[in-house]
Amino acid sequence: MRAYETDFLKAFEINNKKSRSRALQTMMVDLIKSVGNKMKGFSHRETVAYYEDIMRKAWAQVEAADTPEVKSQKFDEYMGWTMLDDNFDNRTRETFRTGPVFVPVWWHRYDPGFSSSARSGGGGLQAPATSSRGPSFSAPNLPGGAFAASIVTGIQDFSSNVVGGI
Q1: Backbone angles phi, psi at 140, to 5 degrees
Q2: Is residue 64 part of a domain?
Q3: Domain identity same for 153 and 89
Q4: Tens-digit pLDDT profile for the chain (166 aa)?
């Protein structure tokens, strides 16, 4: 693990919110300094353009998918890149506005409120048909807009709870 990852995990071992916040702030400052040192000699403008291009290609892969299963798989695969988009919230909602979304297998760990009804088959969710070809999704599907909203809200809630006023 990298130093910032270790520091992040250590911060969450701290029960006192104020102390945890200080530890997270220190972790972020150290991370920014570390990245700044590693960026010496590189063009900031070219680096930003490079990563924006990767982000655009990631969104293109997601949006070009022919089926809800593939679209969900591509979103899961490229989420780390699509999250770089300043318009991630609206674009996620628009991309998954219609049709079902096949929930990534890790989602129940991220959204425990979702997992109890999803795994039991309750809440009107359906398990997708499985195929012997390619990767399979054992998770249920739900209307795209609801899933997109839950991702966006979940990320916003988590980040505001973690960083708060940092």
Answers
A1: -75, 175
A2: yes
A3: yes
A4: 999 999 999 999 999 989 998 999 999 999 999 999 999 999 999 999 999 999 999 999 999 998 988 998 999 899 999 999 999 988 988 888 877 777 777 666 555 454 444 433 433 333 334 344 444 444 444 566 677 777 777 777 777 777 665 5
- Tokens at 95, concatenated: 């991309």
Interatomic CA distance for residues 67 and 23, integer angstroms: 44
pTM here is 0.64
In degrees rounded to 5, what are phi and psi of residue 121?
85, 5
- Count of alpha carbons within 13 Å of 110, Cβ hemisphere only? 15
Q: Please, what's the largest Cα pairwise distance for the chain? A: 55
DSSP 8-state assignment for residue 127: P
- The token duo for 75 is 């979103």
> 31 φ, ψ to 5°?
-65, -45
Same domain, 82 and 119: yes
**Plot region of 164 (φ>0 → left; ψ -120 to 50 → alpha; else → beta):** left
Assigned domain for 16 exists: yes
Does an H or E element contain 100, and which?
Answer: strand 100-102
CA–CA gap between residue 135 and residue 73 (Å, rounded): 9
